[in-house]
Design a protein that fits this description.
Elements: E1 3-5, H1 21-25, H2 28-43, H3 58-66, E2 73-77, H4 84-93, E3 102-106, H5 111-120, E4 126-131, H6 138-154, E5 163-167, H7 173-181, E6 184-187, H8 201-210, H9 214-227, H10 237-250, E7 255-260, H11 266-280, E8 282-284, E9 290-293, E10 296-299, H12 310-315, E11 320-329, H13 344-347, H14 354-371, E12 376-383, H15 386-407, H16 415-427, H17 434-445
Helix pairs in contact: 2-15, 4-8, 4-11, 9-15, 10-15, 11-15, 16-17
The protein binds 5-phosphoarabinonic acid.
Length: 446
């Protein structure tokens, strides 16, 4: 079970300026309102991610088991919420579980990156998973057209078995492609937004393909959901962390640094970055008033970034809240041999495990930041597993929605992202975007 150590988010001898425990009581009413709002939306089937622990995964397992055994690689084409969860899960577990099948995620339109992926795969052994909820995102559509063209030409007889599409149940251009071509397909549920969709077909299909036990992911998510039903705020990690981050935002701490001490969890921090940024960064509140809220999520890697960022974190502006991700037990470890027992410069390391050094350095950074009066917390993974990842995903999804309620904004929309999509359509000559195209012409004259 994940453990959440929030002691350094609350005022103590080292961080007297942090939020006082008793201040939380003053927000009990606001938290209760947010909780009631969430419960209402769950009833109304708006917050679909809450129901995913009960999701029936038979169709996914059946698809994977019937796939041609020659497929040992999946290439996901998707972006944002249609990509980041896949990467987070795969990179967290590929080495810990010794996954045999490979996953590549093409989530950009960088031609060199596409070439790199093509250089690393054998088309013969690849299945391509196009993921897009809207079915229109330019980046995903571009990758889809390039790769489909490639495999149609290379495998004219059986290209269909090499493609699977994950999109809306009925709407969108890709659903028509599925119907016309007869590709296998999966669904992004209506009531689960892109960045909340990792525990739907969006993230589960690639995870099952590479060999994860996806039911364990959902089980972990269910355990966390259960913990987060607790009305006692100190027992509810998502609500507590949400409330504390909300209070720090009000004090001008507008940067949230997530620092895993584990390369495997680095992409989890990237997933979090999208969830937190896109959900909470909003211009208007629910009453239409301009508020310009949000907290900039930053990812840093322990120990690597101790030699790059921690100077700033300890002595720079007091605008940050820190979250460490700690792993207690790694599946792989190394004992450092005592190569120079006579030399005190290095002999203290001899006989110690790498994981011991890693976690000592994590603790050292915590102490340094705490002594410097910087609020920080620690999410402790007893190990990196499907269960603990499921827990962490559910915790942050609930925390994000709860914090959105406290901020009185809509955490489920993304008008800023949509504006960027529209401008791209206009620039690239898509029909129906003449007005935007004319506006851009005016902009160019400036
Ligand atoms: O969270 C979101 O809604 C976005 O990040 C989307 O996931 C992203 O823009 C991709 O959209 P789509 O899945 O429609 O291609």
């Amino acid at each position: 079970m994940l453990r959440f150590d929030y002691r350094n988010l609350l005022a103590n001898n080292y961080i007297p300026t942090a939020i006082e425990n008793k201040r939380l009581d003053g927000f009990a009413g606001k938290c209760q309102e947010a909780d009631q709002d969430i419960r209402r939306e769950r009833q109304a089937d708006i917050l679909g991610f809450y129901t995913l622990p009960e999701y029936d995964t038979k169709h996914i397992k059946s698809y994977v088991s019937q796939l041609d055994p020659e497929f040992d690689t999946m290439v996901v084409l998707g972006i944002g919420g249609s990509a980041l969860g896949n990467k987070a899960l795969y990179n967290a577990l590929k080495t810990e579980l010794g996954l045999k099948r490979k996953l590549f995620v093409y989530d950009n339109v960088d031609p060199v990156y596409l070439q790199e992926i093509l250089d690393s795969i054998d088309l013969q052994h690849c299945v391509f998973n196009v993921i897009t909820k809207s079915g229109t995102t330019a980046e995903t559509m571009a990758g889809y057209m390039i790769l489909l063209d490639l495999i149609k030409k290379k495998f004219p007889q059986d290209y269909r078995k090499r493609v699977v599409i994950t999109t809306d149940r009925e709407k969108g251009f890709l659903r028509q492609v599925i119907n016309n071509e007869g590709y296998s397909s999966f669904i992004v549920p209506d009531n689960v937004g892109g960045r909340f969709s990792v525990l739907t077909d969006v993230g589960l299909l690639s995870s099952a393909f590479v060999g994860m036990d996806i039911d364990k992911l959902l089980w972990g998510a269910g355990q966390m959901r259960q913990r987060c039903e607790n009305q006692a705020i100190l027992e509810n990690p998502a609500y507590l962390n949400g409330l504390l981050h909300f209070l720090y935002m009000r004090e001008g701490k507008n940067v949230s640094v997530m620092m895993p001490y584990s390369n495997s969890l680095y992409d989890f921090a990237d997933w979090y970055r999208q969830l937190w940024a896109e959900s909470l960064g909003k211009r208007y509140d629910r009453k239409g008033r301009e508020v310009f809220v949000g907290q900039t999520p930053v990812k840093a890697l322990g120990t690597t970034d101790q030699h790059s960022q921690v100077q700033l974190y300890a002595e720079g502006p007091r605008d940050k809240v820190f979250t460490f991700l700690t792993v207690e037990k790694f599946q792989h470890d190394f004992v450092i041999p005592n190569l120079h027992p006579e030399r005190p410069e290095v002999s203290y390391l001899g006989g110690k495990k790498l994981s011991e050094l890693l976690n000592a350095e994590r603790f050292a950074t915590e102490i340094a930041l705490t002594r410097a009066g910087r609020p920080n917390c620690n999410l402790i993974f007893p190990e990196i597993s499907e269960e603990t990842l499921g827990e962490a995903i559910m915790m942050y999804e609930i925390q994000t929605v709860f914090t959105g309620k406290l901020l009185n904004i809509d955490p489920l929309d993304q008008p800023g992202v949509e504006a960027g999509k529209v401008a791209t359509y206009a620039l690239m000559g898509k029909a129906g975007f003449d007005k935007e195209r004319n506006e851009i012409e005016e902009y160019k004259k400036l």
